[in-house]
């Protein structure tokens, strides 16, 4: 996935807020699981910002290394600048769900 964040997504002047980068890292990791035929939601996620991302800078988000272990799927992802340098990285534990059963059963 490629994107460039507009000015309305900045935190510090002309720097993309790290929370938006984390959100897209999360999305590409879950999408990797979905593309593997798994239904999953994020149970735990960590991310590390390596350098600031400038507003308007094109960023490529790539998910990789998905591994299934029981009900969990572990996944990693990177956010890369156009020159290939790493802006951020993340990892997540995804919980596999059954789409036929509600996440929040009625009580």
What is the 3D shape? Answer: elongated
What about the largest sheet? 5 strands, antiparallel
Mean residue pLDDT: 92
Radius of gyration, in Å, reads 15 Å
Question: How is the largest sheet built, in terms of strand order?
Answer: 1-3-4-5-2
* Beta strands, count: 5
List the uncertain runs.
none
* Derived structural class: alpha+beta
Note the total helix count: 1
Give the DSSP E fraction (strand runs of 2 or more residues): 35-45%
Brief rundown of the structure:
The chain has one helix and five strands. The chain has 107 residues and is α+β, with helices and mostly antiparallel strands. The protein is elongated.
Describe the structure.
With 107 residues, this protein is of the alpha+beta class. Helices cover 17% and strands 43% of the residues. The protein has one helix and five strands, in the order βαββββ. Strands 1-3-4-5-2 form a five-stranded antiparallel sheet, with helices on one face. The longest helix has 18 residues, at 18-35. It is elongated, with a radius of gyration of 15 Å.
